[in-house]
Every structure is written in C-alpha cells, then in structure tokens.
C-alpha cells in the first residue's frame, strides 16, 4: 500500500464522494427499472427506485469502496441489492439475466458520460489536460476546474471498475446471472448454491491478488480506450 498522505487521502475522498454515490445508487436503480419494465414492481413498491442514498448503502460495501479507492488498485464494493421477484417475469431466466446486465450497463454509460464531461473540461481548460497527461506540466490554476476534472476522472475509473467487478461470474454478482442463463437447469441450480460462499470467494481472490490480476487489464484497457476515443478530438 502506498505511503499514507492525509492531505492526498482527504482530497481523493472529496473528489470521489459524488461519483461513488451516483455509481452505486444508479447501478441499483437500473436493476429496479429494468425489473419494472419486465413486469416486476417490487423495487418501486419498497421505495428502492430513488436517488436517496440511504436505502441503497450497505455499510460494509461502502467501506470496501473507500478502502480500495485509497489502496490505489481496483476500486470495488457493493450496495444493498434491489429486491427482485422473478415470479412477475414472463420468462424468468432470460429476464433475470437482462435485469442483471442493466447494472453494469448503467455503469459503462456513466463512465462514458463522465468521459464526455472530462473532454468538455479539457476544451475549457487545456492546462488541466496537460497536467493529467504529463506530470511535469504546470498544474492548472484555480480550484473549481481542477476539482471538477478530478471528480470526472474518478467517475470514469469508479464506474469502469464497478461494471467489470459486477460482471465477474461469482454468485451473487451480476455476471453469475448471465452465466446461469446459459446453463442447464440442474447445473444452474448447483451454480446458484455458490452464492452462500460468494463473499468468502471474493475475499480469498482479493487477498491472494487474483482479483486484481483479472480485473486490472479489463479496467485499464477500457479506461485507455474510452479516454483515447473521447479526448483524442480535443488533443
């Protein structure tokens, strides 16, 4: 873990707070909206289709977000899952897969929106872009523009990390719902039983470094591709 710097830590937490809350809230709301579209009103009935963070925040998941952000590696965590009742679905297996994909899909879309905002800031304040691309470049003056730019960059990173993390095929993550859809019924039921051990599996993968090894190339590749596509026109 990098040397602890209180000022840097507070700065990182400050610029990460808004995109982090937006990312985890909209991820869960996307699940709920997709479920409602497919016939399940449960999330709306229980007040989970809201931007109020309180119904969505899982304390342990939020702590995990904060710690992994400070650690400097892959950022991940979780919110309280939106309640889904597959009995309302016409085609439960397919619809559960679509609902699961809505969350990571929302995060990829948010990453794109944050990247577009970053490009807009680069047009207004080119010195920020230079300071981001080249460490030896002069730092931009002012407070608001650098803060907004750093917040947007954190928004890109957080959402890409969250999307790929949730697409891991480990129950109860969203990726496991996709895998289940393509498995025979008996195999899908056996696979679903791993949900009881999902947290332990993730913890082992995190501590062993396997999680970072798997996710880092996906996150870095997505980040490089997105920034090159969005920022290239303004360079």
From TrEMBL:
Database matches in InterPro entries: Metallopeptidase_M50B, Peptidase_M50, Rip2-like
One biological process term in Gene Ontology: proteolysis
Names of required cofactors: Zn(2+)
Keywords: Cell membrane, Hydrolase, Membrane, Metal-binding, Metalloprotease, Protease, Transmembrane, Transmembrane helix, Zinc
Membrane topology: Multi-pass membrane protein
UniProt-recorded Gene Ontology molecular function terms: metal ion binding; metallopeptidase activity
GO cellular component labels: plasma membrane
Pfam family, one: Peptidase_M50
Lineage top rank: taxon: Bacteria
Keyword Transmembrane: yes
Subcellular location, record wording: Cell membrane
Protein's name in the database: Site-2 protease family protein
Organism the protein comes from: Candidatus Desulfovibrio intestinavium
